[in-house]
Amino acid sequence: MKKFINFIFSVKNADNHKVFTILGTKLKFRLKQNYNQMILDRENTIKELKDTIQQGQNYYNEMENTIKELKDTIDTKINQLNRENKQIKEKISGINSSQIQINKKIKRITQKATLEQFEIHITNHCNLNCKSCTHWAPLAEKFFISIEDFTKDMERMNFLTGGGMEVKRIFLLGGEPLLHPNLYELIKIARNLFKLTDIYLVTNGILILSQKEEFWNMLKEYKIRLTPTYYPIDVDYDKIEKTCKEKGILYKEFANRNGNTYWKHPIDLEGKQNPTDNFINCWVANWCVTLKKGKLYTCTNPPHIEHFNKYFNKNVEVTDRDCIDIYKTDNLQEILNFLSKPIPFCRYCNVKNRSEHETWAISKKDISEWT
Ligand SMILES: C[S@@+](CC[C@H](N)C(=O)[O-])C[C@H]1O[C@@H](n2cnc3c(N)ncnc32)[C@H](O)[C@@H]1O
Ligand code: SF4
Ligand code: SF4
Fold this sequence. Notes:
Blueprint: H1 2-8, E1 9-13, E2 17-22, E3 25-30, H2 32-108, E4 117-121, H3 147-160, E5 169-173, H4 183-193, E6 198-203, H5 213-221, E7 224-230, H6 237-247, E8 255-256, E9 262-264, H7 275-280, E10 290-292, E11 295-297, H8 301-312, E12 324-325, H9 332-339, E13 355-358
Parallel strand pairs: 4-5, 4-10, 5-6, 6-7, 7-8
Antiparallel strand pairs: 1-2, 2-3, 9-13, 10-11, 11-12
The structure holds S-adenosylmethionine (SAM) and iron/sulfur cluster (2 copies).
């Protein structure tokens, strides 16, 4: 019976449908039920895939957050390290600059091996008269050093310094040195006595470009270094430099006072400052060594304060202990030792209240420029 039924009617499962055979004739019937199952399967697969993608996305987001956190942590660390490096660098530069300051202080109070340099006023007055001039030129009366006095002191300096061999630099200045009527003569004397010394003619430049050919010839013949200070005035300093180059004349810009680089070095009229502290902290000390009327000074203040005293009727006192008489010693070592020590006059210098950033101006000859 079963065989008979199978003979006339059989059912087989195919991929996505069933095949009915009736009396050998194959009939295909798509079964809705199977399709539903397939859709369900596919939907499940899609859902699974979506879940996988979502998991991936979640994982990705998590990773992104972790990376961001890591980046933030690293950035914070880098910033912290940079800040610390900056602080360390500041400390190092602080240590370096205080080391430099200490070296300078030690240098001031250390006797030099030779008299490296000295300066001498050949005039006291000036044709520019800058505010707070540290040589008090605006207050000075007209003065030209005499050839005799200049020769005498320069010969003595030559004698004391092994025939001038121990002096590297001499500065001829003032006041304004180009005002001196016997400038050429003075230069000749200086050169003959100091054959190997670099001799600087320090000038505000006002009179340079109106000089005759003779002036330039004289600078060249005596190997004098023309040394202008640049001021914000109507002088063509570039032309001066160019002329020196063209004529083969030694040249050096002494200082550029075009900016706010002007100083005010106040005097304490009561003289209540600590001389040793002042000397140690004073950049002029044992550097701007000044020769005046047979005496050597460690700086420019005691030799030139006379102009201030006279003009304002003050008595900022200068004594014999503020200088060393070049005719009372033959010993250069004694001189060098003297120049490296504080002097009584140091009590009048208000070194800690010095300013180095004043704006240049013409002097009104007011005492406040120097106090
Ligand atoms: C006293 S001047 C004499 C030479 C010439 N008159 C000159 O000005 O070059 C020598 C140097 O001292 C500088 N000096 C004098 N007083 C100064 C101040 N208050 N501030 C800055 N520099 C000053 C001048 O600028 C110049 O370079
Ligand atoms: S130019 Fe100025 S700094 Fe030079 S001596 Fe004259 S007043 Fe002083
Ligand atoms: S007298 Fe004044 S300018 Fe001279 S070394 Fe002493 S502190 Fe410096």
